């Protein structure tokens, strides 16, 4: 297992998983939007809203993108495959 930190500071979407990985995703600080999309979502679009300490599991073939839902968000992702 590998763990990676993502500091989401811009309104631009950041790719979290590539569809070949299973992952546990947790918002450590702040709030974030999340979308499952094969392509990068358009700038400014909203997604599922996650608050601090919320968890989400991602499985194949999900391609997860995240961006902050406010001033910023710290997200920790543990890849299990």
Q: What does this protein structure show overall?
A:
There is one protein chain. The chain is mainly β and 81 residues long. The protein has one domain: Jelly Rolls, CATH 2.60.120.10. It has no helices and 6 strands. Strands 1, 2, 3, 4, 5 and 6 form a 6-stranded antiparallel beta sheet that branches. The protein is globular. The termini are close together.
Largest sheet: 6 strands, antiparallel
Class computed from helices, strands and strand pairing? mainly beta
Round the Cα radius of gyration to an integer and report it. 11 Å
Percent range for helical residues? Answer: under 10%
Give the domain tally.
Answer: 1
**Would you tell me which CATH topology applies?**
Jelly Rolls
| Percent range for β-strand residues | over 45%
Principal-axes shape call: globular
Low-confidence stretches: none
Question: How do the SSEs run, as a string of H and E?
Answer: EEEEEE
Assembly category: single chain
Number of helices: 0
* Distance between the first and last residues' Cα: 7 Å
């Amino acid at each position: 297992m590998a763990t990676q930190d993502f500091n989401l500071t811009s309104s631009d979407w950041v790719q979290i998983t590539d569809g070949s990985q299973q992952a546990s995703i947790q918002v450590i600080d702040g709030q974030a939007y999340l979308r499952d999309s094969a392509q990068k979502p358009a700038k400014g679009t909203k997604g599922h809203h996650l608050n601090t300490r919320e968890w989400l599991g991602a499985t194949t073939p999900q391609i997860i993108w995240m961006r902050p839902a406010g001033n910023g968000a710290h997200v920790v992702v543990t890849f299990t495959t």
